[in-house]
Amino acid sequence: MKPIYSITPIGGVKEIGSNMTVIKTSNQWVVIDAGILFPSDDFYDLRYLIPDYSYLDENLTSDLVITHGHEDHIGAIFHVLEKLPEIKIWAPAFAAHLIRAKLEEKGKKVFIHIYDEKSLLEFNQIRIKPFHVNHSIPDTYGLVIQDREKIASTLYISDFKVDPLASFEKPIDLNSIKEFMSSSLIRLGLLDSTNILSPGKTDSETELTHDLDEIIVNNHERVFITLFASNIHRLKTIIETAVAHKKKIAILGRSIKFYVQAARELGLLSFDEKDLIDLENERLEGKKVLVLVSGCQGDFHSALRRLVDGEVPHLKLRPGDLLVFSSKTIPGNEKKIGKIYNKIYEQGARIITAYDKKIHASGHPGKEDLKLVYKSLDLTDLAPIHGESYFLQKHIDFVQTNFPHIKTHLIYNFHTLSLLSSGDIKKTSEDPLELVFIHGQEMVIPKKKISERRKMATQGTVLISIKPEKTQAKIRIELIGLPEIEMKLDALKDLLSDKLYGELKNKDLEKKEDELKIETRRFFNHFLGYKPVTVVHII
Ligand SMILES: [Zn+2]
What we know:
14 helices; alpha/beta; binds zinc ion; 7-stranded mixed β-sheet; 8-stranded mixed β-sheet
């Protein structure tokens, strides 16, 4: 049986990040989101990972629909455009603004079709209806994908929260979503698993106002607040409170500057230029000031890390300063952030985190929120997305326990769900393509090269150049990332020279280089206990 349409995630359904899902009909592929995943620390200065977009069939792929402006949903667009320069991009206004700004930084211009809740995106055999949802960045949408006969409706919401108290934007309208899907035989949900381990409800962004206000008002010394830079509503709360209490604002760090500017340009954030201190040209001394600092995850290149290490010119932490972490620690970053906490205390400053005060709310639904969603939506089927494998299985368990009438489908990247006119959903799979590593100026780097980087970083490098002369060779040895061992190097030179003029005398150049490399690695292994990366050149 030919499917009405099918759904294949190629990123984001086994890891949190690098979201990309392909909706396939017989003559058209529509892609939802194109995001990046930030690497964990041990990837040696790689910038990010993205889904393998070589999968996208250039003869079929025509449209890219973006749900919101987070990097794990828009960060790979640059690369998709390299392969598919003609792809038509649809996005909400704020995401479109961010995409354009980021692409312009890389010298690319692109036209984006803006959609909002009133829109209905029409494609050949399917249509997509956007529904506004709350999240940790403004202007986020869930999408209902529906065939023209309305047999199969799929609700795709990778990132959302249930926030009935939302005061910045209106809350998710579950009734309207239910109604739009109601006439379909298949009512499939592809829903957010990020907070499936959280038992209760996610706090409302609005509930944070009280404690943030108290912190800003009660601290007369300098207050530094770090947060996820794209959380415009949080920035708005903080900035408005500071201004109301006659505090000046300063911004430290590229990413908060970038998002504040974007939000001001779109009218999502407004404040008077006179309330802003330019850290490049003005000093903070003697001023009541609130400094917004990028880098709440303690990344090495971040403004926060530079601040605590005293590397920001004219701005040193001192006793009396207060550092506020209006954020959560992303699992894996605990050590980096712990180090930063230590350094702050060592300088006599104080810290407030979300453990002390209600100053951070997640952008994703907890279990109680999901219960409300499943009660309200009348889904027939569910496939969890936006989570690591463990989260996806936990989400399945949760639904099977609480909503046994919903059929569950555990899928990973490169599994395909085919929606059939019989009302069934068939799961198939193909060999998964691994995420692609990006480094430097948006360059792809092969996986093999990463293991070379790892070896060089952990085992050091030996560079040997050899110029053979009549009876002996001139040998130069350079060590990178290895201890100075001058005495031993002379012994190595003798060893190499003996071998070159002895058993290797009549071998070809390549064989000579290979054998000397093996000899060198063996030599170092003898007293270091490991074999460094070794390069031997015979000139
Ligand atoms: Zn998001």
